[in-house]
Amino acid sequence: MLDLAIIGGGPAGLTAGLYATRGGLNNVTMFEMGMPGGQITGSSEIENYPGVTGEITGMDLMIPWPEQCQRFGLKHGMVEVKRIELKADGNFTIHKGDGTSEDAMSVIVCTGSTPKRAGFKGEDELFGKGVSTCATCDGFFYKNKEVAVIGGGDTALEEAFYLSNICAKVYLVHRRDTFRSAPNTIKRLKETANIELVLNTTIVEAYGDAMGVNGLKVMTPEGERDLQVPGIFTFVGMNVNNGILMDEEGKSICALNDSGNVIVDLKMQTNIPGLFAAGDLRIDAPKQVVSAAGDGAVAGVNVITYIDDKLNG
């Protein structure tokens, strides 16, 4: 039986493995179907990871992590995990995609979340070349330039405010003429001089060339409009990767919020003893590499205490 099974090989999962094994756990496996690293490996440039200076890609940032995290005995199980089963004795069964299973005394789930695509023409082709889902990651590249933000939820409005402090102008494109945010947020939005609301509008297409995005064509009530922007940010929701927490009846084995994020305490522990969640999967996650790594460290340290209490308490 494993002391600890870690599901997911991004910054949270890798750091959890590092802290758990370095802290004394001997039988720890991180399950990740592909090479470890997570979503950040797709970023073209990282400027906000502490201690990292100069030009570095997300891939370059993550390359040394697996070797460091495996130095103390972390094993990499290159197999898909289908689901986690809570057993009657309080342990867990990890059901794998190859038809086999493995038991574990504790589990840290670090499967993250995936930004939803808006589904307009040109989005996929230009993703990472001017189309982004992270203003904190990529906003600085458009300093003193014009950008478009697509969406009408809290995240879209917050990111529009963030970008308005960097960019010359922000076009906030929304398919409706109303927002579901707090009245004060909407009031602030309308009072921000360099945010232009483009409402009751649908996306026609994003267009560009080998160098990246050149603009966004939209259909407004007055007709088609061409927003000649080099950057497009889409915020139309997240797909929480919580499928492995569902039992055979489709019910989660631990508590989730209305958005499907895992509810955890400050120790990253769920309402199920021995089951932890870290990174973008958990509630109120900032969705930054440094935060995910911090979550993993917290979970890894607290798993050690949990296992010690379970065996000796």
As a percent range, the share of helical residues equals 10-25%
Structural category is alpha/beta
Strand order of the largest sheet: 3-2-1-7-18
Low-confidence stretches: none
The succession of helices and strands, N to C, reads EHEHHEEEEEEHEHEHEHEEEEEEEH
Global mean pLDDT: 93
Radius of gyration: 21 Å
Cα end-to-end separation: 19 Å
Highest CATH level, the class of the largest domain: Alpha Beta
Here the CATH topology of the largest domain equals: FAD/NAD(P)-binding domain
Q: What is the fourth-level CATH superfamily of the largest domain?
A: FAD/NAD(P)-binding domain
Global outline: elongated
- As for the number of domains, it is 2
User: Can you count the beta strands?
Assistant: 18
Query: What count of helical segments does DSSP give?
Result: 8
Largest sheet: 5 strands, parallel
Strand content: 25-35%
Assign the CATH architecture of the largest domain. Answer: 3-Layer(bba) Sandwich
Q: Explain this structure to me?
A:
It is a single chain. This protein is of the alpha/beta class and 313 residues long. The protein has a 5-stranded parallel beta sheet with strand order 3-2-1-7-18, covered by helices on one side. Strands 9-16-10-11-12 form a 5-stranded parallel beta sheet. α1 (11-22) packs parallel to α8 (289-312). Helix content is 24%, strand content 26%. The two termini are 19 Å apart. α6 (154-164) links the parallel β10 and β11 (169-173). It contains 8 helices and 18 strands. The chain folds into 2 domains: 4-115 and 238-312, FAD/NAD(P)-binding domain, CATH 3.50.50; 123-234, FAD/NAD(P)-binding domain, CATH 3.50.50.
